[in-house]
Amino acid sequence: MSGSGGEKKDFQVVEYGNTHGEVRFGHLWGKEGSNVQSDVCLQGSDPIHYITLEKGAKSNGERTGWTCLRNPAVFEVKCGDNVDEDKPAVMIEAINGDIVLKASNGKIRLQALDVDIQAIGEDNKRGVIDLKANETINLDAKIVNLGSNKTTAMKILSTGIGEMTFKTSLTMYSGIGKAITSTVGKGGKDSKLGGRDFLEGPVNGGTSSILGGIL
User: Fold this and answer.
1) Interval 93-107 mean pLDDT
2) Are 199 and 180 in contact (CB under 8 A)?
């Protein structure tokens, strides 16, 4: 298995192919003496068009058990012709670790009759969905619902401008409502609906919304 100078070699490597492609068994990746080996590799005529089942590196376990697919153009999966409507046609499960979908120079689009996104955590520290954008998040639908009868708290916070526009009607209801302006800050007077402690605490601390309930 080893050559001169400690380089890894395998004299059982077998390759079948021609100018159109190859099937390799025991292929060693990289330069001669590479420590990463493939059990089976299906190689196309393009150097970056292949499927490989990795044996990995015996010394440090690098890429052990990996399945790698590399192609220079479109990767398409189409299935489900004979699957019932209420059954999954494609299922990807990671027993441990993350699932990453990354488009380095494009968009990620989800399109279906319905889209269901759930985060189901084991305790109150998990079960979180984060939506982050460095520019804009747009919600566009005939009806947009935020919260439900299971929602225990809702916070809206902005360090800049806030605006609400409803062209027909607006209904706001709350058991207790507070609305104050920044004039209760340093040098200002307390408001009848909230004082400096409210502005400097929950509002500036980001733990509450400035506007809550009926005015």
Assistant:
1) 94
2) yes
Cα–Cα distance, 195 to 16 (Å, whole number): 81
Token representation of residue 112: 């279906």
Q: Which two tokens stand for residue 151?
A: 């929602």
Residue 202 makes CB contacts below 8 A (sequence gap 6+) with 208
Q: How far apart are CA 112 and CA 78, in angstroms?
A: 14
Q: Are 25 and 1 in contact (CB under 8 A)?
A: no
Tens of pLDDT, residue by residue over 142-152, are 999 988 888 88
Task: Provide the 10 A C-beta neighbour count for residue 210.
Answer: 19
Does the pLDDT value for residue 99 go beyond 90? Answer: yes
Q: What is residue 122's predicted lDDT score, i.e. its pLDDT?
A: 86
Residue listed under structure tokens 């439900």: 148
The 8-class DSSP code of residue 69 comes to E
- Phi and psi at 200, nearest 5°, equal -80, -20
Residue 188, number of CB atoms within 10 A of its CB? 14
Strand order in 37-44's β-sheet? 14-18, 21-25, 37-44, 50-56, 67-70
Average pLDDT over residues 14-29: 92
